[in-house]
Amino acid sequence: MKNLKTLGFIVMLLLMAAGCEELPDPAGVRGVAVVPAITDLNPGVFDSKDLENSYIEFVITVPEGTLPEKITVVASYLDNFERVTMTEATSFPATVRLKSKDVIGKLGIQASNIENGDIFTFELLTQANGMTTRSVAVLSIPVACGYDVNLATGSYHCVSPDWGSDGTITLSADQENPYKIYVSGLEEIEGLTEDLGPLAIYIDPATYSVNAPLKAIASEAWGYGAISYTGTGVYSSCDGNYTMYFEISLTALGSVGQYSFTFTRNQ
Asked: Does domain 154-265 have CATH number 1.20.1300?
């Protein structure tokens, strides 16, 4: 049995509905702060294998009926809090694309010193109603490997110590959506006929988190009726492995609990 490992890098997008940190203003507080939001992050990582061409993209929105003079996007590396200006927006909603090479250059970092797992933090400074505020909408962008559908599919070794599963499964990509992955063989490992499969899982292109909507994959399981899977997990874009947490249900018994699975690429 392999020990369960947390795989991949998870983008932490912190979006809060209200609240800003006011920056010092010699003239004092005037008017009401405008609270922007960050949405539609995609992609949400800087590709460590291609820092020359990698980028992130997101949308800045403001509450209806408000119009700030400008919103400035500032960046920091690791916990240095440099807050160097990257770009400014004056009309909203605003689509922002930041190239990793530009961010690295403005922060004065050597690309050769950047490693997988390093974090770039992006904050918004809003100028409106005579004051400047720092929004609590923050992006923490990790350096990770870019998505490669060929690395995310193929023959895998599936292990679940708590469910007692161990065997070979096959992952294949949807022809139109490379982030939709079909998992075949989960119940064949158990000696069942997987007549309702495969199980579809979805990789979030921004965060590499994985979602598996409820799906029956075998119509008969040990006399208890159909067996179904639903769950969440994370995809590791650097090695192609998955860590999944599946809730498994049987028609006659309902949910029988949540179980951890690891899918490791067969070399």
From this structure: no
